[in-house]
User: What shape does this take?
Amino acid sequence: MIQNYFFLNRLVLEANEILRDAVIQEIFSQEKGTMVIYCEKSNENIFIEISAIPGNSYFTIKNKYTRAKKNTINFFDEAVKQKIISFEIANDDRIIKIKLEQSE
Assistant: This one.
């Protein structure tokens, strides 16, 4: 869990370089409190795993992720096929914003 704003800010700045111009392919969850955003960029797979479990919140970026065949649910279908414009953090707060072509 990242409590420090400055550490999270640095992490978001570096993640922005990786995620900018990636296209969202799927957004899904297969366990409580966790969401995965599957993106493609230059024929590479990028998986953003976000956990909002109190006391164990995190986000991580992976190149490989195995989705379960059962007990998964899709989210935010309107964001699928949109390009990520930027991955940002709010000023003086620990809120992360993903700007897409047609939504945030």
In short: The helical segments are 5-19. The longest helix spans residues 5-19. The first strand starts at residue 23 and ends at 31.
